[in-house]
Amino acid sequence: MPSYKAPLREYRFLLHEAFNMSQYSELPGFRDAPLDVVDAILDEAAKLAEEVLQPLNQVGDREGCKLANGVVTTPSGFKEAYKTLVEGGWPALVADSAFGGQGLPNALGVLFNEMVSSSNMAFGMYPGLSHGAYSALLHHGTDEQRAMYLPKLVTGEWTGTMNLTEPHCGTDLGLLRTRAVPNGDGSFAITGTKIFISAGEHDLADNILHLVLARTEGAPAGIKGISLFIVPKFLVKEDGSLGERNGVSCGALEHKMGIHGNATCVLNYDGAKGWLVGEENKGMRAMFTMMNEARLGVGLQGLSQSEAAYQNALAYAKDRLQGRSLTGPKEADKPADPLLVHPDVRRMLLNAKAFNEGARALLVWTALHGDLSHASDDAKAREFGDDMMALLTPVVKGYLTDRGFANAVEAQQVYGGHGYIEENGLSQFVRDARIAMIYEGANGVQALDLVGRKLAQNGGRGVFGFFKLIDDFVAANTNAKTESFMNALVAARKDLEAATLWFMENALQNPDNAGAGSFDYLQLFGVTSIAFMWAMMAKTAAEKLASGNGDKGFYEAKLKTARYYFERVVPETATHLARIRVGAAPLMDFSADEF
Ligand SMILES: Cc1cc2nc3c(=O)[nH]c(=O)nc-3n(C[C@H](O)[C@H](O)[C@H](O)COP(=O)(O)OP(=O)(O)OC[C@H]3O[C@@H](n4cnc5c(N)ncnc54)[C@H](O)[C@@H]3O)c2cc1C
């Protein structure tokens, strides 16, 4: 049976020490969350994750969701767990206080979400998607829509979905066909079929608010003719009570590789009543609010499965006796040494450990900059926060899910054949992690977004601002104790800058050069930004050790993990740069017949 323990000491290290969150204590949101309160919240959240959600993870995987007569039933225990989540007020954690939320920063919210997702990723998607719907309505809905829908999303009494995908239209949303025809009373009749809709129908909440992309009559072709609509499962009366059932129904549940506890639905819209959210034909703008938030949430899913798989693989490697250490027996009184003595087993575990701690730091740092982009009283800091969010969103989504999956596979490898057996749970981590690389914009598309849009945004202000931040940090913090880390960070940053300049020189003349190098660029960006996080964490750990802080073992392990990251992972930046520099020819010189 797999287990999960929330890494609370790691959270405290990031919030209290490495990022010193108390420096923001005067800003809105942060003001309501002094660090002792934050610690208490995280402790309570850990109990929810460990005691309520984790025990249901394998249940959800085994049972899956069921559809009978149009009604979807979630796995045993999910309904009660969702009730516990709602009664605990958790969906309100980072929501706006004007609608009943607690208004806490997202930098805290991502840690809550990590715990939920590590303990039960499929379950976590129900509240996760609701929060995305909440954000789209908060930023683009009318006052009336906000008043009608947001308080119920904030309490979790109602949930939300996002409906983009259609059978013939996935990445290329310009192809979508779902139609919206005015009813003459301000509402529209929505007709079409959406597929793969997560949490599209279930028995956890009284109502489901579907956010649906559709075309109005005479709308321009392609992406410019798409509008966003809100389509409630049950129509909502003026007094807020629920009215008749709307014309949207679940036609089928997808049978899929993982996240069995989450209902992935074919939704049929048959003249369902919907209302425009935001301006007509500007639906993609509104949907992007939801998608950007969801992308951080999906990156977090990659980390969450890597963390859960790592914890179990580590326990297994300490317990399972197999073979002897290459340098002679380490536990001579036993018939064999534990797996942990073998360098190759350590390689797999340390790949995950160094990633988990660094990726978590990147996630919190990115979310923090998103928070500052709203909350800071300094216009420059708001602009910088915005730039970092925009730049790093595809990196967090793409890199954290690619590596998260790879780490889940390596954790499975630590178990040998026992990792392939369902009851040990490793197979589920691998299967669940896989989807995060695909949905919310497949990772290849994230890489194109990074290279094609984010680099050039505002004349490169974001990426060059990021380089300057690293340079300033290195200049201010290099000393005898940190020098080796800083040098490795500088080398990675140089490779990233060289790749960035190469694209600037070579992508315009041949756009395939951008497409051919984009995967490697996203990996290079991921490694470098996590190296930056490790440099910050190593600096903090070195200072704590020098100050004689009592938690010596923790800081020493931090420095050793930093060393692993800088010496074993960071050198791969050179390979990515070399691949980028060869350009498109090795890929594009093939004709279709030559494959
Ligand atoms: C379990 C599950 C849950 C989902 N949940 C939702 C949901 O809640 N709401 C929703 O709307 N959708 C959802 N999806 C759909 C998901 O977002 C899409 O599957 C995804 O966006 C990819 O679209 P596609 O499957 O049509 O693949 P395609 O668009 O056909 O792409 C196939 C491959 O080609 C690559 N590719 C496509 N175009 C390009 C390009 N221009 N350049 C480079 N590479 C390209 C892609 O990266 C991908 O690897 C879900 C899917 C699954 C499986």
Number of helices: 18
In angstroms, what is the radius of gyration?
24 Å
User: Sheet bearing the most strands, described?
Assistant: 5 strands, mixed, barrel
Q: What is the overall shape?
A: globular
Instruction: List low-pLDDT spans.
Output: none
Average pLDDT, rounded to a whole number, is: 96
Strand order of the largest sheet: 4-5-11-7-6
Number of strands: 11
How would you describe what is shown here?
- The protein is of the alpha+beta class and 595 residues long.
- The chain has helices at 8-18, 35-53, 57-63, 78-87, 106-119, 121-140, 143-155, 283-319, 343-375, 379-414, 426-435, 443-454, 461-477, 483-506, 511-546, 552-569, 572-581, 585-588; strands at residues 66-68, 71-73, 158-163, 179-182, 188-198, 207-216, 227-232, 234-236, 242-245, 248-253, 264-277.
- The chain is globular.
- The chain binds flavin-adenine dinucleotide.
List the defining traits of the structure above:
595 residues; alpha+beta; two-stranded antiparallel ribbon; 18 helices; 56% helix; globular; binds flavin-adenine dinucleotide
